[in-house]
Structures are given as C-alpha cells and as structure tokens.
Design goal:
This protein is of the alpha/beta class and about 350 residues long. The chain folds into three domains: about 110 residues, Winged helix-like DNA-binding domain superfamily/Winged helix DNA-binding domain (Arc Repressor Mutant, subunit A), CATH 1.10.10; about 60 residues, no CATH class; about 180 residues, Rossmann fold. Helix content is about 55%, strand content about 15%. It contains 20 helices and twelve strands. Helix 3 crosses helix 8 and helix 5 packs across helix 6. The chain is globular. It starts with a helix and ends with a strand. About 35% of the residues are buried.
Length: about 350
Amino acid sequence: MSNQKQQVVADKQKATGDQNSRTTNLSPTNQMFQLIWPGAMAAQIVYVAAKLRLADLITQEPKTESDLAQATKTHSPSLGRFLRALVGLGIFTQDEKGRFHHTPLSETLRSEPVRAWAVMLGAPFIWRPWGELYEAIVTGRPAFERIFGSNLFDHLAAHPDDSSIFDAAMSSHSVMTSTILAAYDFSRFDRIVDVGGGRGELLLGILSAYPKLQGVLYDLPTVVAGAAAAATGPVASRCEVVGGDFFKKVPEGADAYVLKQIIHSWNDEDASRILKNCRGAIRNDGTLLIMGDVLRQSGKPDPNGGLMDMMMLVLSPGKERTEEEYRALLERAGFSMPRVIPTPGPSIIESRPA
C-alpha cells in the first residue's frame, strides 16, 4: 500500500475513532441536545438547499454568494447567511476567495434519491403536519386532514405541484428496489400486478430482472399518466398500464400481487378493503406480497419503525403494524401469512389465499 493510501486509511480510522469516542462520552443531556439541535432546523436547511439546486449550480466550478444569488434569484445577503449555515453543517466549504465548493455531503444532493426525499420531507404539505404532532396525539386525528381539509391522497390529486414532489420521492428509491430483488425470487410467477405502484419503479425493476414475467402497473389515472418508462421503455411490451381505484377493484387473474408501502397509509377498515379486492382478483395459487416496515415487539428499540409510524400518524389515518397485526388483517381478508422476510430495507410479507 502506498504512503498516500496508508494516510487516507489512517485518517478515516482516526475520524471514526474520534466520532465514536465523542458519542460514547456524551452525557444523556448532550445526547438529547443532539436530537433537538440542530435536528429541528437541519431538515429545513437541507430542503431549501435541495429546492434551490445549489449542489447542481457549483458542479462545473466553484461559485460565490453573488453568483449563486443571481442564479437562484434570491436575496444575496440572506443567501450568504444561509450558505454559511450549510458550511457549518459540512454541506459545502468556502475558500479564501469566497467561493463555495462541494463536500461529500453536498455531492449527495446532486443525486435524485437524496434530493427528491429532501424536497419532499421539507415541503410545506409534509412539514406543516409534523408541526402539529402534539395535536395528532391528543385527538387521534391526522394532522394533515386538520390542516388541509382532506386526506393526503385527495390533496395530491388536487395539487399537481405537491403530487409531483411526492411521486418523485416515491419513484426515486432505487435502493429499495434492489434490496427487494436481492431478497426475493420472482421467477416462479407468470403475471404480477403492482397495486398502487406509482410510476412503476419497482415493477420495472422486477420485469427487467425477469424477462419472462408479464406485469400490470395499477394506480390512479392521474398517477399512472406520469409512468412514461412503463408505457414506452424497454419492458413496455410486457407491462400493461392501468388506471383505477384499488378501493373499488384491482386487475384480475394474476398469480402475484404486490403492495409496496401501501397498507400502512390506511386504517384497518380501509386496508381490509384493499386486501379483500386483491383476494377477489388473485388466482387461487397466487401470492400476495406486502412490502413495508414491520414493527418489532413492544419493548424492543425500533427507531426507524417508530419514526415511520409517527409519519403515518401526522399524515394519514394509517399506521405501521407488528407481524401479529398484519396476520390478523390478512386473515380477515382471506389470506394466510406463512412468512415475513426481513431485508435491510422494508420487510416482505408473503401471503397466499387461505
């Protein structure tokens, strides 16, 4: 190993050691302050940086505050203060000439998965309901409905700009697709229906990996209208795009039905309606696959599942569920639940007609 490479490795090890040491030595009070500060503000700071596309603007060459203010049509002194905050968070550096440069963190904002989620999580239609988490816990009513006067999905149907932000985030998660493909073998199926499949990112990944498989992308007409890759892309000859409402019916006759991050958005009554429609459509030898978080048993730390459950609490009438809750829900809809397949991302709940 060259001296330069040895130094890089040593630097990484030192940085990791320093970070672990700092974390270990923090008092509970300081650990709590790490959650409170700067977490409450950092999400909005990253959102604005992503919305202004600052990372894209300095890709070709470093730029000054004035350059960036002109490119983004923003107030230069305020943008300068904002850029200093970003530098403080490790997002960009600034040289002696006042020009801003990339860091590994800022580079991630050029990537659509990260940028799309940063824009969605900081957008007012998501951010405002989080500000009323307290009221949601007190009343049991989703904060989103109280603020906007409708449920999330009706709001998205009526507000194309918010819908575009939401769909971009939902469709950008290629890591989730690769995780699912690595964890599950779809080769035994003939025809798969992706129920509530959005723009088809998951289904297109499955069809690309399994050339003999036929697929149906099914979602609201306004949603599948944006599924250009499914309609005209490389697997279009094997992918049927169908608009409809999964509360009324789903396409019939397939041997596999997929519900990715769908059931958690709805309460038990509405979730049962979706599952019963799938039960009425699926072949008797078919398989239903629910992809989503499965909460750990009570008392076991589950930070990711707990945070996602709070997201459901403020945005929707739905919730994250334990394995036992999924089992009861599926049994009421006429399915058995033979197994849960954990993955580094969402779990895969495999069920068959009972």
